[in-house]
Amino acid sequence: MLAILAQLFLVCFLLIVNGELLRFFVLRRLKLFMNLDLVQICILDVYLGGFILYVIAMLPFKLFNWMFIIGFSSICIILSFVVHFGALKDTVNMLKTKTCFTRNNLKVFSTYILIFIMFAIFLLINLLSVSSLVFGSVRDESIHSLHVQVILENSYVPLTLQPYLPEGIIYPQASHVIFAFASHFLNMDIPNVVLYVTIFFKSLSVVAAYFLGLRIGFNRTYSVGLSFVFAFISSWPLFVTWGGNPFTVGFPLFLVCLGLVFSLFCSGEKNSYAELLIVGLLFGYLGAIIISYLQTLMTTAFLILIYYSVRKFRISHLFLDFLIVFGISILPLSPFLSRFFAFYQYPGHNVGLPSDFTQWKPQQFYITQALQWAFDNLSPYLLLRVMIVFMLAIYAVLIWKTKNYENMKPTIAFGSTIFVSATLLSFISFFLPADFGVVSWGHQGIILSIFVNIVIAAFYIKFRKSCNEWTKKYLPKVFSKSFGTTTISTIAILSLVSTPFIYNRLSLDPSALRGAYGVYAVTTIDDYNLMLWMRENLSASAVVLVHPFEAGLFIPSISHHKIVYPCLLYTSPSPRD
Description:
By secondary structure, this protein is an all-alpha fold. It has helices at 2-25, 38-58, 66-83, 85-97, 103-129, 140-154, 174-183, 190-216, 220-233, 245-265, 273-289, 291-310, 316-328, 330-343, 369-376, 382-402, 409-431, 441-474, 485-507, 509-518, 525-537, 555-558; strands spanning 543-545, 562-564. Helix 1 (2-25) packs across helix 3.
């Protein structure tokens, strides 16, 4: 476990330093990205580094190889040290003279420690749940492992899955580039790289929630509370266990981009063209990870503009900003959009599929399926599901009774817009033909949970203030100022509301996750040993007949052999992430 953690943190560090130079020389000069703290910088740099690698991998020059990646990362490490040498020197001097131990610095430092602890707990829970597995989902992760294998063999993102399949690569590959990059530094088979890197990015949602909270919240306490909700209360993305690797990898960046949407379209300030360019590229990179997120960002921003139009605000510049941002966002996604349109005329809308391809079957059976799925998965435990509904109801009552909602109004309104956007997209997906499923109701069902998390974090803040007021008003003798009413109310909140969630997360979730992973992670050690034997003993031209829902789907990424399976056994694909 320690070896896995060390390797995962190494990959994270390399992504950060690969992206830091872009942030240092370009982004930090822009108003939108000024005054970021250390946590915000780290989560942003992870994806800036991924974006740079994505650009390198998309170029048809075969630069995405071991030598180039090592050289590029080494140069980034050296240059990052050089540009930050002065800041590092000042920090060392402050530590020597102890001038850094001011009350404000200690408060900020304690916030960083708290965020890291929540992130580490969330990560360990996930890692422990998969420690007994050989590989992950035989469907999703075998497909993504094949894509990674093809990238590594070609040293860039090719047009098709050759030499394994003639099928064209239409699915956006930004997440697969991250997996391929990580495979250079992780001492694992590719399927395990996909599994463990996905889990690491899933855990980064705790850090990204802090970024989102600072953008849409009213103080640092709210941002820490939002991280707490994602770490200990929310079921998503924790229980994305069936695969969903690109969706999970993109989830933290989606939270970051939601914060940028709020800053761009809700702040009321005019944005520079440089800011619009950078944000558009980030949005496009998110779309190159998973298209569902870009769809939700566009819908959310558009609904905000509609609201401003109804209120008759002067927002002509915001409409222009909207067009510029989402026009630029097409650029990172354009290689796969062009492939989609070029291959659409073929059977199954792909150049490599056989002419007798059977048509896709619909996955959404009723229009409110996403809403029902979101409600059913508020929590895997009935008691906690009831508690979440109760918390939302109590928050509504507190707002109604106190009439003090002005500071929370923008936050809740923005969260509601996300909810409406996800709901609207899930409704649209119901009316799309099965062979044109470009909108995923399943993804939108998970995105709906973000609104719930935003409200729960707001509930914590409001409930804490109400506890302070009540204790001062009704129990002044017991809870004197010297005793600390804030501390008492905070302890009351943690003990009465949070303890059941924390207990279940620490004691029950690891086993529940293990069972959820086990539904699709069916590969055994004997299956793995057989694949290793195939790699050593079968000829390179061998083609292996496999079952489409069993461990043989990992053969290309382990044994490096082609596979084929009977069409009669193949009914319809599971919802692709």
